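Task card 7
Instruction: Convert sequence to structure tokens.
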Amino acid sequence: MALRYLFLDFNAYFASVEQQLQPHLRGKPVGVVPMLVESTSCIAASYEAKKFGIKTGTMVKDARALCPDIQFVQARPKFYVEYHHKLVDAVETKIHVDKVMSIDEMSCELCGTMRQRENALELVKTIKQTIAADVGEHIKCSIGIAPNQFLAKTATDMQKPDGCTILDNEDLPHKLYALKLTDLCGIGNAMHQRLMAAGIKTVEQLYRADKYKLQRVWGGIEGARMHARLRGELVALPPTHKQVVGHSHVLSPEFRTTNGSYSVLQKLVQKAAVRLRDYGYKAGALYTKVKYINGERWDANTSFQPTTDTAVFVNVLAEQWRDIPPYTARPVAVAISLYDLVKENIATIPLFPDIEGNPKLGAALDDINTKFGRNTIYFAGAHNAISRNAAPMRIAFTHIPNLDTDHDR
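Output:
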């Protein structure tokens, strides 16, 4: 099998960017947190912190107990996005970035003589030197090279940080056998339980299972795809369709009131509307959820004529909010989702256009905010949240924010 893919995984990315930007953090245990409060958890940890057992999801108080000298920094998504684009540009000078997988992962397709092992290793060396020189020497990456993208991604986890692993004919499949099932992309906790129930407890047993058994475990074609991926085969996937655009937010103490949570929801739905238009979709439904400190929750679903108009979404949210029960417990988290999505260019023309709202209004708002700065103009229901910078930009695993549309001033 030829070596076809090179995959880059930037190590402890958020923490590494902070260490690049702030020299006093270099070589020290660092935890990146969404806000500087004891009740939150780390969204990233430097490798110096990981040595103490601190990882994504570790609570601040637990991290302090594990490592009293840890330094916490508040996340600055704007810089992580900017450095992401610098890294893409740096890699592009050596090889085309075929696909950006997330803010800290990218995949490149090897062509011609690059598929030869020695040339691929030389390319890795050149890429790492270019990143150090053009972006920053404190931002490291692990690189995997393999016959397909799945195995190349798997290889990045086999030597961290700053490593390089090749998986080819002489390495497969035995090099995979040292991994745990959950080390493989696509095997989360639920799938791990299903595999265990089927008598598949190791990667070797997974590899040796026939594709029909894996289809039964996965409940469909994805099992056959896993069978093929493990053998280095290229697996063609159908085109994807975005299912939902949404935001969630854990409320800071000052917003844990009925009015405060509503203001944050107003901000979230307006942010989601901007992303919806940026993706080229219309939404036909809005889901809203509030979680309370006592474990209770309230949610609401509303369907409507597919639209891009922020005014429609804001009004639907207001109608939902009129029916919220008078809870005495404090709200602690909120979420909204725009769903029932359809591409703008194939959406059915409404029989009664007035129901769709005014799609040109949203586009005009986007133009103004792009030209004069995010939140130059917005619907008033979100004023309290926007003026106090609640629910700032966050970076989800598969969503890289557009600084022109997602970044708060």
